[in-house]
Design goal:
By secondary structure, the protein is mainly α. The protein has 18 helices and 8 strands. It has 2 domains: 396 residues, no CATH class; 121 residues, no CATH class. Strand 7 and strand 8 form a beta hairpin.
Length: 554
C-alpha cells in the first residue's frame, strides 16, 4: 500500500508568490525600457560602448583613451550592455537589459520581507516594491548602459542577506548559517565595488551596520573576507593591468598617492555636485523633494530621502513619548547602513546616480519606519490590533501612492525605438585608418569604424597626453605606420558649449586638416553629427593622395 505524503501548502504558496514577484519585476523593467526608448546617454557615447568593445576585441593596447580618462575604468561591467546592444536587434536589447534591471524590485521585496517578518501582511513588501519602482534615478537608468543600476543587483542582494535570519548567531546551529550569509553578502557587495569603485560607500555602510550585531568582530571578519574576495574577483585583473602598464592600480585616479607618470599628480574629483557647507548638505533631501537638483545635471523630483528623515524623527519622538524602544536591532542596523553609506557618498561624490542603491533601499526603510510608528499606538486587545493593522495597511498604500505620484524621473537622453541609431559610414571611412579624436564624447564612434583602425584621443583635459610617455609613443608609432585609409580627425559638426574644438593639438604631431578635400559626416547618436576630416603633414600637401588615395576630392 502506498501512503501519500501531504505536502505543506505554505512552501508552495511562497514559491508561487516569489516566482510571481520575480516575473512581474522583470516584466516591469522590460516594459519600461520599451516605453522609454533607446539609450544614447553621454557616458555611453563617451566610454561605455567603447569599454565593452575594447575588452572584447583587445583594443586597450592599440587605441589611446578614446573616452578620455574614463577609458581606464574597469570595462568588465560594460561588457554585458555592449553584447546585448550589438548582439540583439532594437528594441530587444533594451528590453533584455530592462528585464535584468527590473530584478532589483524582486530583491527589494525580499529585503522588505526579511525586515518586516514573513508573517506580516504582503501589503508592506508590495508597497516597498511600488516605492522602489518609481524611483527617479532607478527609472532613468532602466534599459541603459549605466553601471549603477546593474551593480545595484548584487548590492541589494547582499543587503538582503545581511538582514536575513536573525542576529542571534551565538546560539547553537545558527552561527555557521549566519557566517555563510555574511561571507556571501561580502562577496556580492565586494564584487560590485570591484566593478565600480564608487560602490565602496556601501561597503562602509555595511561595515557600520555590522557593529550592531550581537558578535560584531566575527561578523566583520566574515563580511570582510567575502568582500575582499569579491573585489579581487571582479577588479583584480584590471587593477593589475593598470599597475603593469602605468604603475598605478587605480590609474589615473588617486595619483597623489601612486604618482603614475602618465597622469597629472592631482586628484581627479568632480566637485560640481558637492554641498557648500553643513546646512546645504542637510538640505539636500529637501531640495530633491521640491525638484531642485544640486546633485544631478538634469532635473528630477524625489521625496524618499526627506520622507525617511521625517519618519525617523517621528519614530524617535514616539519612542520618547511611549517610553519604550520602537526600533529593533535589525531596524537600527538598516538605519546605520543607510546613513553610513549616505554620508560617505555625500562627502565623496554627491552624484545622484551613485546613490541608486540608497534610493531603492529607502523603499523598505520607509515602510519599516511607518510600520513601527503605527505599531507604537496600538493597544493590547485583538480588536485594537486589528484596527491598527488596517490603519497600517491604508497608511502604507497611501504613502506608496503619494511617493509614486510625486516622483519625477530624470532623462539621460533616449531615441525612439522607431528610429534606432544605426549609422551608415561613407565609403571613404570603410577602409582601416587612423583617427585622432579632438573632442568628447566620441568613443561610441570607434566600434563603428572598420576593423583594424586605430583611435587616439588627444584632447582630454583631465588626462592630457604626456610628451614622450607611453601613450605619446604609441600615437607616434601608429602615425609612423600609416593604414590604407589614411589619417582622419574626428570632432563635432556643431560648436558645443564648454567643449571647444582644439585644432591646435594637431600641431603636436605635425598634422593639419587638408583644405583641399571635403570633410565627411557621421550621423550622431544625439542628432549632433560628427565631422571626419582628412589630415596631412604640416609641411606638405603633395602627400595627400598617398595618405588616403580612396578619399573624395572637392
Amino acid at each position: 500500500m502506498v501512503i501519500a505524503r501531504k505536502i505543506p501548502a505554505m512552501p508552495v504558496v511562497n514559491l508561487v508568490v516569489v516566482s510571481g514577484v520575480i516575473l512581474a519585476a522583470a516584466l516591469a523593467g522590460a516594459l519600461y525600457a520599451f516605453h522609454a526608448g533607446e539609450d544614447v546617454n553621454w557616458d555611453w557615447q563617451n566610454y561605455h560602448d567603447y569599454a565593452g568593445f575594447a575588452l572584447l576585441h583587445g583594443r586597450f593596447d592599440v587605441d589611446v583613451a578614446p573616452g578620455g580618462f574614463q577609458s581606464y575604468l574597469n570595462p568588465l561591467v560594460y561588457l554585458l550592455p555592449y553584447l546585448a546592444r550589438h548582439g540583439l536587434s532594437a528594441p530587444w536589447w533594451g528590453i533584455v537589459l530592462g528585464a535584468l534591471h527590473g530584478l532589483n524590485l524582486a530583491l527589494i521585496y525580499w529585503t522588505a520581507r526579511n525586515l518586516l517578518g514573513r508573517t506580516e501582511s504582503p501589503v508592506g513588501p508590495l508597497a516597498a516594491v511600488v516605492i522602489a519602482a518609481s524611483g527617479p534615478m532607478t527609472l532613468s537608468e532602466v534599459g541603459t548602459s549605466f553601471a549603477d543600476i546593474l551593480t545595484a543587483l548584487p548590492i541589494v542582494a547582499g543587503v538582503a542577506l545581511l538582514f536575513a535570519g536573525d542576529d542571534q548567531g551565538q546560539k547553537p546551529g545558527r552561527a555557521p548559517a549566519q557566517a555563510r550569509r555574511l561571507v556571501i553578502a561580502g562577496l556580492l557587495i565586494g564584487a560590485a565595488t570591484g566593478l565600480k569603485l564608487t560602490n565602496a560607500v556601501f561597503l562602509i555602510g555595511a561595515g557600520i551596520s555590522l557593529l550592531l550585531m550581537m558578535r560584531p568582530l566575527p561578523a566583520l571578519l566574515c563580511f570582510g573576507m567575502g568582500s575582499g574576495l569579491g573585489m579581487l574577483a571582479t577588479g583584480g585583473a584590471w587593477a593589475f593591468r593598470l599597475w603593469r602598464d602605468f604603475g598605478s592600480p587605480l590609474f589615473p585616479f588617486y595619483n597623489t598617492i601612486f604618482h603614475a607618470n602618465e597622469a597629472p599628480v592631482e586628484s581627479i574629483v568632480d566637485t560640481r555636485f558637492m554641498p557648500h557647507g553643513l546646512l546645504d548638505a542637510l538640505a539636500y533631501p529637501f531640495y530633491w523633494l521640491v525638484g531642485k537638483h544640486p546633485s544631478s545635471e538634469w532635473s528630477f523630483r524625489d521625496p524618499r530621502f526627506a520622507l525617511v528623515i521625517v519618519l525617523m524623527l517621528l519614530v524617535l519622538g514616539a519612542s520618547i513619548w511611549r517610553r519604550r524602544e520602537l526600533l529593533g536591532r535589525k531596524d537600527r542596523r538598516l538605519l546605520f547602513f543607510f546613513w553610513g553609506s549616505y554620508i560617505p557618498w555625500l562627502v565623496a561624490f554627491a552624484i545622484q546616480r551613485y546613490a541608486i542603491v540608497l534610493e531603492l533601499l529607502s523603499a523598505p526603510l520607509i515602510v519599516l519606519l511607518l510600520t513601527r510608528l503605527i505599531e507604537a499606538w496600538h493597544g493590547e486587545s485583538d480588536a485594537q490590533r486589528t484596527t491598527s493593522s488596517r490603519r497600517l495597511q491604508l497608511a502604507t498604500i497611501a504613502v506608496a501612492l503619494a511617493t509614486t505620484l510625486w516622483s519625477e524621473p530624470t532623462d539621460w537622453m533616449r531615441r525612439p525605438w522607431s528610429d534606432p541609431y544605426r549609422p551608415q559610414l561613407a565609403e571613404a571611412l570603410q577602409i582601416p585608418a587612423t583617427f585622432l579624436l579632438l573632442q568628447k564624447p566620441l568613443g561610441y564612434v570607434v566600434p563603428l569604424l572598420p576593423e583594424g583602425s586605430r583611435a587616439y584621443q588627444i584632447s582630454d583635459v583631465v588626462l592630457p597626453v604626456v610628451p614622450g610617455g607611453v601613450l605619446d609613443r604609441r600615437i607616434r608609432a601608429g602615425l609612423a605606420q600609416p593604414l590604407p585609409g589614411g589619417l582622419w580627425a574626428l570632432y563635432f559638426a556643431e560648436s558645443l558649449e564648454g567643449n571647444p574644438l582644439r585644432l591646435d593639438l594637431l600641431d603636436t604631431y605635425d598634422l593639419k586638416i587638408d583644405p583641399d578635400r571635403a570633410c565627411l559626416r557621421i550621423p550622431g547618436a544625439d542628432r549632433i553629427d560628427v565631422t571626419a576630416c582628412q589630415l596631412i603633414p604640416l609641411a606638405s600637401k603633395a602627400s595627400t593622395a598617398e595618405l588616403n588615395p580612396a578619399a573624395p576630392r572637392n
